[in-house]
Amino acid sequence: MKKPLKSYLLAPGPTPVPPQALLAMAQPIVHHRSPQFKPILEEVKEDLQYVFQTKNDVLILASTGTGGMEGAVTNTLSSGDKAIVVRAGKFGERWAEICEAYGVEPINIDIEWGRCVTPEQIKAALEKHPEAKAVFIQAHETSTGVKFPLKEIGEIVKDKEGTILVVDAISAMGAMEIKTDAWHLDVVVAGSQKALMLPPGLAFVSLSEKAWRFVERSNLPKYYFNFAKERKSLAKNQTAFTAAVSLIIGLRETLRQIKEIGLENIIAHNQRLSEAVKAAVKAMGLKIFTKEGLSEVVTAVEAPHGIDAQEITKIMREDYGITIAGGQAQLKGKIFRISHMGYVDEHEIIMVIAALERTLIKLRYNLTPGVGLKVAQEILLKDK
Amino acid sequence: MKKPLKSYLLAPGPTPVPPQALLAMAQPIVHHRSPQFKPILEEVKEDLQYVFQTKNDVLILASTGTGGMEGAVTNTLSSGDKAIVVRAGKFGERWAEICEAYGVEPINIDIEWGRCVTPEQIKAALEKHPEAKAVFIQAHETSTGVKFPLKEIGEIVKDKEGTILVVDAISAMGAMEIKTDAWHLDVVVAGSQKALMLPPGLAFVSLSEKAWRFVERSNLPKYYFNFAKERKSLAKNQTAFTAAVSLIIGLRETLRQIKEIGLENIIAHNQRLSEAVKAAVKAMGLKIFTKEGLSEVVTAVEAPHGIDAQEITKIMREDYGITIAGGQAQLKGKIFRISHMGYVDEHEIIMVIAALERTLIKLRYNLTPGVGLKVAQEILLKDK
Fold first, then answer.
1. Bridge partner residues of B190 (DSSP)
2. Alpha-carbon distance B214 to A304, whole Å?
């Protein structure tokens, strides 16, 4: 039967954009060198520091997060450098791929997908390779739902004068606790289309003073992603190249909303939604794929025996209008992932659990309707 | 705790507007006498006939539904006329009030709120008052959730040359089955902000040939709501006064969507949502207020003993961002009403049931979380 079908986004990015930001972005274009634009850039510059919890500059690049990752490599390292890379999923692999593309030798710490790297493993790798110029890691591995112990790793790297800690926080920034300065995170990369609630198209990079010293010495080829140039422009409330003005105007709106609600409240909100989803899928007899270090930003769930996870995501999308994510690379067909960050509320969490129950029943999974919902309701009732 | 709060509208109007219609209405204004506007009016004119299931003209007025109701009185009756009015709720009372304001004498059939008028009562009233020029009724009484037997009443009135049947279908048109021509409904009034999925601001009125003969003889004072003048303008794809151009451009979009899904599918969709809500609230131990003739457009529910319905609607709105309706007039504080028409999907129905469960538990109503949801899930699983 044909019926009205609305669209819901519960994949780990792009995430829904608040209507106020959509309206802000629909305004006529202003010029990126105009006097109207400078105060906008000045405002978002400060608000990004609030979200990043840093006193350092946060560069704004017109690219997606991967551009920020590439820049983090090409602006801090030199050809022939070695770097420790935590490879615990799809995005850990990306760090290694970028290093290789630019002649940096990755020393990979390979972690079974779904498991977490320990601070001891980082320490051991640094002892074995004291010449490593950087440690590349994610705040959490979006592909597996594992959150890494950034604070502890920061404690290890901070005293090594010759090594920086470079964090891909693309799907984590604004969603989970990331204390850039207090945790000694030298380079932190974020993206617009995740917890910052914007369309894709902006990357953000913060660099510590230690990291800026690396920038001075870096000899890797770069042109568009030139952090020194961006830093100089940012001091004049500009960007080095054309600014993505509409996205930045939208960013001003979403950052205002984040400040208005308060970062700590948003993080608590995400944790609450994450708890509800994780408890609900367990009550439904499903297994969380993530073995340790459960991220509160995304829940990775194993498809039940005999059911392809792609069938689940297909029914969710086609019959229910809900986009959740499947598994990536070797996890394709094996897991599906539900995000609970950004502009997502508790009602959408109830909705996705309800639709997941109905989807699994359609796929002949043995389930009493409502068992997941009951548990989710109980958790949401703990609301202060 | 502060948290992101989205807004959901599940009151019986205004209802949510599809984003495609919002975008259409955001376009630059066109002039209402311009060549660009005429094909738009021509298209909506035809599509309104599809929704009304009529071959008659459907007039488009720049007013809310009540303006259409006033016009239905002032354009068909004359001073001193008598008219039978079914008063079974707030909107039945409105017909009587308009009649009185214009010197028409209402012969009220007073029905206990929550109960339905029978065709026999109409028949008896007409036998007692054969001079009555009109029978005024609702398609369903939004204030009580009662659906009236329009088809049967149409059979009774159709053979009375001196009496027309005038139907307020403001919150019913496009949501439930209303066969204007086949059921001999002489005047039918609808509004934009209900199942037609637009902001408030447009009323629609269809008149049968029999009704147009009444218009010729009517002597009540009128200027803005002049149906004869509107009919003449409509023949030229215009409106008599300035057309509410943006709303009509939005209407073109929502009518296209209705045609694309199919009126019969939309009605079946609403019935399914209504069934889920009614079963869920019963499973929660609540009582449906409506005693007979259950409308599929709105569910009226009695607040549990000791709980003011206004507390329920307040928590739903303030804590959960969900607007449902309270009771009107003597039902204030006693009932609340959930709408399931227009741009509302099954996920929002799950969401409203979940939020209602949590609201009632917050108000110390004895309820096991999930009991309503379980039953709603079972009904939604019957999806073809």
1. B204
2. 68
Could you tell me the pTM of the whole model? 0.95
Assess B365–A contact: CB distance below 8 Å, yes or no.
Answer: no
H or E segment to which residue B326 belongs: strand B325-326
Stretch 315-344 of chain A: residues touching chain B, C-beta under 8 Å: 319-322, 343-344
Digit-coded pLDDT (tens) for A229-276: 999 999 999 999 999 999 999 999 999 999 999 999 999 999 999 999
DSSP state of B241: S
Rounded Cα gap, residues B44 and B234, in angstroms: 11
Could B370 and A369 be called an inter-chain contact, meaning their C-beta atoms sit closer than 8 Å? Answer: no
* Amino acid of residue B254: T
Cβ pair A4:B351 closer than 8 A: no
Total Cβ atoms within 10 A of residue A150 = 26
Convert the pLDDT of each residue in B251-279 to its tens digit: 999 999 999 999 999 999 999 999 999 99
Do the Cβ atoms of A369 and B351 come within 8 Å?
Answer: no
Q: Does residue A374 sit at the B interface (CB-CB below 8 Å)?
A: yes
Q: How far apart are CA A344 and CA A271, in angstroms?
A: 12
Nearest to B345 among A4, A370, A384 (CB): A4
Domains present along chain B, CATH in parentheses: 8-15+262-380 (3.90.1150.10), 19-260 (3.40.640.10)
Residue of B nearest to A260 (CA): B2
> ipTM for the complex?
0.93
